[in-house]
Amino acid sequence: MSAPTPNPSDRSGLGGVDVSAVVGALLDLRTWSAFDIDAEGRVLAGHDELGSVQLVEIDPDGTRTPLTDLPSRCVGRYRPGRRQVVVQHDNGGDELMQLSLLDLSTGATTPVTLDGLEPLVRDPAYLHVIGDVDDQRLVYGTNRRNGVDMDVVVRDWATGAEEVLWDGGGYVADTHVSHDGTSVAVTALSLRPASTLVVLAGPRAAAGNQVTDPDDHARNHAVGWAPDDEALVLTSNSGREFDAVMRVGLDGPGFDDTGRTTLVADEAHDLAAWPSPDGSALVVGRLVDGGVELAVLEADGRLRSAVPAEKGAQWGRAVADVVWAADSSRFVLTVSQPTAPGSLYSVDAAKGRATLVADSREGRPVDLAARLVEPSIHRVPTPDGEQVPCFVYAPSVPVPALAGASVVLVHGGPESAADLTFSPVVQALVGCGLTVLVPNVRGSTGYGKRWYSLDDVDLRLDSVADLAALHDWLPSQGLDPERAALWGGSYGGYMVLAGVTMQPERWAAAVDIVGISSLVTFLENTSAYRRAYREREYGSLEHDRELLVRASPITYLDQLRAPLFVIHGANDPRVPLSEAEQIVEALAARGVPHVLKVYADEGHGLAKRANRQDAYPAAVTFLVDLLAR
Q1: Alpha carbon distances (Å) from 479 to 55, 224, 390, 435, 471
Q2: Which of 32, 85, 143, 379 is 20 to 30 A off residue 562, Cα-Cα?
Q3: Residue 582 phi/psi, 5° resolution?
Q4: What angle do CA 332, 333, 337 make, to 5 degrees?
Q5: Are 606 and 489 in contact (CB under 8 A)?
Q6: pLDDT at 313
């Protein structure tokens, strides 16, 4: 179908909805994230009111002290035993993370700029990622040896001396130091699709450094050490459909039944785990249809709720993340819901008492709150007999001109998932009167190994076919298939471009954010340290080029007819700007209506509030103008 060129001046029938005002107000909502909590209960948190995510310290009495005002987003960790913070920051979204120290002992009440940080580990040509921090040492990952492989480095706080503990190659995802400080458990990406492995570095690796089989098609993640350092705590779906929590002994090589003990398992859901630093307690998260249910594993093997009953009722379905204090006395929760950005709770580990630290509902306009909606949960049938999990957000305030119009919003990854967290984009689209469908197409995590494996390599286009199944399902929900659009970022952007080029008759418009237009040029131009791990998912340039061409949206450009809004960061190290430029060049040559917004100070996505306030209201308006009747 063809779609009209947007007419921003025509607002008849929108029921008085000011699209820019609705979107802008949602983007202005404060969203908290917790990065650390210390033994005194101070929380190291962040939000983006200064323009990008910056550090804020929240005292137990509620006092909030802004700590940083850096040019780009940052995260941090406390240095135990000192009033210092290790700050991880990049430049303009280039993801070349640098590490600095922030001294809190001065008592300063104004945020520091980059010049006010003490350089710790800096080399702007390479990335340096915080792994673990204790009172004796800093552990970080870096690719400075060859620009590709991530090594694990331990830096002694007292002397500044550094030791490379792991240089076995590959991309390091996480590290955990043993209690005696001699060894590090390393979780790294393997060369199997959507798989990770665990290795040991240091004296405790004497029996062999492979904790898990590198050839296993499984997600293995070391989350901590047993109290005696004689075992690791892992989440793993090796030999099973869903992630379970396991104890793996270190007295022999390999990962077999003789060396592992299942601590907690659920035959229908993935589990996540957050052990306390001293190994004495374990918080377990059960993932159910995009939400997380938290419990604490007791010494007798029983689970008790990690959240007091009144807080559980208040949160409802939510997404939660856990960060423990270094002394294991408490942990801080970041809790997000579809209708509430991140709030923070401090939980006393012994008493199970939760205290609200920061409420995301502060200052939220009443009229805006009325527009926020919870989704309904569905399973969408496909022609080959699968069922696609899907959240549907229906407007709480109907807009006659947009009745029946819908947007299918596809998450990134692909080894990721849409979950029950707050999304200002989803709520903005709904608040303007559009129904939003947020699917977990095949290849998404959270629904078992079989489901996330259904888009690997030569199955890629089966995932794209799920978009057609979603489109076919629209009439059953009272939605107009002639007025359906796509929205997605990163891999979701690839899915958007695949949908509008391979299924051109189905989609009236689309918004593509940092999306892949050609799998071939993407793999040729993405950062070297990422290439091998993207090839494991999409196929290799050497062996699967024909498949990559067949699965690339740019191959089908002659079929594209839907107007397209494209957003990209000039410094994107993952999906280079060239991916957007080549699709827009082809659109211009064919006279297809389009908009391209490129941000010189952004990378993979929009990290800065000012840029989001520029791009997203314009993108939503673009869709509203095209879908209104």
Answers
A1: 43, 48, 15, 8, 9
A2: 379
A3: -75, -30
A4: 160
A5: no
A6: 41
Residue 28 has pLDDT above 90, yes or no: no
Whether residue 225 contacts residue 178, with contact meaning beta carbons closer than 8 Å, is answered with yes
Q: Are 219 and 197 in contact (CB under 8 A)?
A: no
Instruction: Tell me the pTM.
Output: 0.90
What gap in Å lies between CA 433 and CA 16, rounded to an integer?
Answer: 11
Phi/psi region, residue 91 (left: phi>0; alpha: psi -120 to 50; beta: rest), is beta
User: How confident is the model over 404-431, as pLDDT tens digits?
Assistant: 999 999 998 878 899 999 999 999 999 9
Placement of tokens 């062996």 in the chain = 543
- What is the per-residue pLDDT for 310? 44
- Per-residue 3-state assignment (H helix, E strand, C coil) for 113-167: CHHHCEEEECCCCCCEEEEEECCCEEEEEECCCCCCCCEEEEEECCCCCEEEEEC
What's the CA gap between 231 and 275, in Å, rounded?
13
Burial of 310 (0-12, 13-18, 19+ CB in 10 A): exposed
Angle at the Cα of 419 from the Cα atoms of 497 and 401, rounded to 5 degrees = 60
Residue 559 near residue 504 (C-beta atoms within 8 A): yes
Beta strand 564-569 with 594-599 is parallel
- Both tokens of residue 514? 């940092």
Short-list 516, 621, 536, 565, CA closest to 192: 536
Burial class for 538, CB neighbours closer than 10 Å (0-12, 13-18, 19+): buried
Q: Name 11's Cβ contacts closer than 8 Å, sequence gap at least 6.
A: none
Tokens of 125: 């040509």
- On whether the CB atoms of residues 303 and 264 are closer than 8 A, the answer is yes
Q: Tens digits of per-residue pLDDT, 561-584?
A: 999 999 999 998 888 899 999 899
Q: How would you classify the pairing of strands 162-166 and 509-513?
A: unpaired
Q: Which residue has the tokens 């001109």?
A: 401
With CA atoms as reference, report the closest residue to 444 among 384, 513, 495, 372. 495
Between CA 527 and CA 574 the distance in angstroms is: 6
Q: What is the distance between the alpha carbons of residues 377 and 571, in angstroms, rounded to a whole number?
A: 37
Cis status of the peptide bond prior to 383, with omega within 30 of 0: no
What is the DSSP pairing of strand 98-103 with strand 84-89?
antiparallel
Nearest by Cα to 391 from 341, 433, 427, 342: 427
Tokens (6 digits) for 454: 């259904």
Nearest to 241 by CA among 424, 447, 538: 447
